[in-house]
Amino acid sequence: MTIADMVRVLNAKVLLGEEKLDTPVYTACCSDLMSDVLAFVNEKTVLITGLTNPHVVRTSEMLDLKCLVFARGKVPTDDILESADEQGLVVLTTKYTAFSTCGLLYEAGLRGVPIEWDTEGKD
What we know:
This protein is an alpha/beta fold. The chain is built from five helices and six strands. Strands 1-5-4-3-2-6 form a six-stranded mixed β-sheet.
């Protein structure tokens, strides 16, 4: 799937990165807790969130993410968009809830970030 495919599936508006819509994506993560994103994401991916604060952009930078999708029609402020632009992120917004966004993308073939579970019950 490419980011352009995501735009189509989500009927999303492109806020940044129009020139990078042909970028392929393979996994996604959805969270409003950036600590969870930092703990579980270990590959370049798409972040789906409803948060529009600077922590989202900082987290994206730390993990070298490809794309941010803001759910529920959220649009970050200009300063946050400027930071995202400096990182070269593609930024989208969609009217769908985070749950529906994930479901639509999953249905279209995008999968979640694989998480390793402790099979011995220690975690």
